[in-house]
Write a structure and sequence with these properties.
By secondary structure, the protein is an alpha/beta fold. The protein has two domains: 248 residues, TIM Barrel (Alpha-Beta Barrel); 35 residues, no CATH class. Helices cover 29% and strands 18% of the residues. The strands form two sheets. A nine-stranded mixed beta sheet has the order 1-2-3-4-5-6-7-8-9. Helix 12 links the parallel strand 7 and strand 8. Helix 11 packs across helix 12. The longest helix is centred in the last third of the chain and has 13 residues. The chain starts with a helix and ends with a helix.
Length: 346
């Protein structure tokens, strides 16, 4: 991985304003992802190069999703009744400047003891779904990841295992035939990949995704909506179409978390809703993600939809379609009140 000094010399930029940022939030970039940068300030650059604005953000929280407060065992987060998030590593292929876990950067020692998290899962039969994250689980030594998956599969009530990773996008060479074959032994297993910009869909990332998909692993993408990176319906339409072409289903378009040091990436909520409206019926329904906000304080994800309903009366619902045309949809007798209760604010 290039150091910040090496990066600054190569790109002929002034290191002086970046060094204090990197001391607080370390710089982390690999040669492959650096190779996707076309020019200073482009959509890839902004994701990985320190920005002095990270130091001036006073609006965010170190732990916006209350993961530490919802951690009943080391590195385990239990937010939803039937599933848990297990942070199995601190290592990433990149230090994304908008990361919701910037607080964990530089923690040093990797989590070693599996027993506390496994004991917690074993003791709670309501836990049927385990999401491995970190850091990036696909950067663990293969033997270590195998051991984690094997131990989870020994727990009878754990039905589904998911892995959150940026590796197929950010360091695709780490996805090997051997890794894909090993993962295929633990179905049902799902991999959610983090792609943010169309230039990230390359021949190398397509090869990595094909290895996983050919191993029978369903792939989805979680894209973060980032100011100055992808906050445009044309950029996201291209990204989502490209993802489908490499067998990755766009799953989430995520509003930026309220993480300290990331306010300059945050877009108004209305931006995401407008983009969703612009995309509807202009790209395949398979390519349409859910637009979600992860609510502060660990209160969970909330999906939002643009308001296409203009009026509800006793006989009909008046809506606006993707072209902006007004359309009338007939309602069943007595449906008005129940429909208004579902679509109108409380």
């Amino acid at each position: 991985m290039p150091s910040l000094d090496e990066f600054a010399r190569k790109w002929k930029i002034d290191l002086t304003p970046l060094a204090p940022v990197a001391r607080r939030y370390p710089f982390g970039l690999n040669a492959y992802f650096e190779g996707l940068i076309r020019e200073s300030g482009d959509g890839v650059w902004r994701q990985v190069v320190p920005d002095p604005l990270e130091m001036s953000d006073v609006s965010g929280f170190e732990d916006p999703l209350a993961e530490e407060a919802l951690s009943p065992a080391p590195n385990l987060v239990h937010r939803y009744p039937n599933r848990v998030l297990w942070l199995v590593t601190n290592r990433c292929a990149l230090n994304c400047r908008f990361c919701t876990r910037k607080r964990r950067w530089g923690r040093g020692e990797e989590p070693q003891d599996l027993k506390p998290a496994l004991d917690y899962i074993v003791e709670r039969k309501e836990i049927v779904d385990v999401l491995l994250s970190g850091g990036d689980p696909l950067l663990l030594p293969q033997e270590r990841l195998y051991e984690i998956l094997r131990r989870l599969r020994e727990i009878e009530h754990v039905q589904i295992i998911r892995i959150g990773s940026r590796v197929p996008c950010a360091l695709p060479s780490a996805i090997t035939p051997g890794l894909a074959q090993m993962l295929s032994g633990f179905h049902p297993l799902y991999v959610n990949i983090h792609f943010n910009h169309p230039v990230e869909v390359t021949a190398e990332s397509a090869r990595a995704c094909a290895l996983l998909a050919n191993a029978g692993i369903p792939l989805a993408s979680q894209t973060v909506l980032l100011r100055g990176v992808n906050d445009s319906h044309t950029v996201l339409a291209e990204l989502f179409h490209k993802l489908l072409s490499i067998r990755v289903r766009p799953y989430y378009l995520m509003q930026m978390d309220l993480t300290a040091g990331t306010a300059h990436f945050r877009t108004p909520v209305s931006t995401g809703l407008k983009i969703l409206r612009m995309l509807r019926n202009r790209i395949s329904g398979l390519a349409m993600p859910h637009f979600v906000i992860d609510l502060p304080g660990g209160r969970g994800k909330m999906a939002l939809l643009p308001n296409m309903i203009r009026e509800i009366n006793a006989k009909e619902m008046i809506v606006r379609n993707y072209k902006g045309e007004t359309c009338i949809y007939p309602l069943l007798a007595g449906e008005q009140e129940s429909l208004q209760a579902e679509v109108n604010p409380l």
